Amino acid sequence: MPGPHLERRHVTVVGAVIVRDGQVLCAQRGPGAQEGLWEFPGGKVEPGESPAAALRREIREELGCDITVGDEVTTTTHAYDAVTVTLTTYWCTLADNVEPRPHEHAALDWRPPHDLAALIWAPADVPAVHLVGMAF
Ligand SMILES: Nc1nc2c([nH]c(=O)n2[C@H]2C[C@H](O)[C@@H](COP(=O)(O)OP(=O)(O)OP(=O)(O)O)O2)c(=O)[nH]1
């Protein structure tokens, strides 16, 4: 039986597909793991937390704004070298007129859905990117 150090860590992550005026908010990771890759802002779900509550908390921390969380886009699992990520993305809207700011990301970019695929995304996000690109 492999020791615990050989078992990949598994994390449950939520990502926000924030839509405004027909554009989708894309976020570029800052220094650290997967630096420079694009993702849907969000993060890990904490024990006892609902996915929607986790997403609202992460977006407040990362972008300084409040969102309304809607239906799921998709759930995908991707095995990275050190960790396996199960990512669930949700359709979201901004809850008020507060403009999202990159507190933790290197950059933010609003793009029409068909332009998302021109960016280089974290591997776990690629199925969601294609679904979003076809959705509207
Ligand atoms: N937030 C987010 N993370 C993603 C996406 N795709 C993807 O593979 N990941 C990975 C990167 C990380 O390994 C993990 C999420 O980590 P994170 O650093 O964003 O979350 P966190 O703020 O809760 O993390 P931490 O500060 O506690 O380390 O999931 C995505 O679209 N959004």
UniProtKB/TrEMBL annotation:
Entry's Gene Ontology BP terms: DNA repair; DNA replication
Keyword Hydrolase: yes
Catalytic activity: 8-oxo-dGTP + H2O = 8-oxo-dGMP + diphosphate + H(+)
Domain Nudix hydrolase: 8-133
EC number of this enzyme: 3.6.1.55
Protein origin, superkingdom: Bacteria
Keywords: DNA damage, DNA repair, DNA replication, Hydrolase, Magnesium, Metal-binding, Mutator protein
GO terms of molecular function: 8-oxo-7,8-dihydrodeoxyguanosine triphosphate pyrophosphatase activity; 8-oxo-7,8-dihydroguanosine triphosphate pyrophosphatase activity; 8-oxo-dGDP phosphatase activity; 8-oxo-GDP phosphatase activity; metal ion binding
Family classification: Belongs to the Nudix hydrolase family.
Protein name: 8-oxo-dGTP diphosphatase
Source organism per UniProt: Nocardioides jejuensis
UniProt lineage: Bacteria, Bacillati, Actinomycetota, Actinomycetes, Propionibacteriales
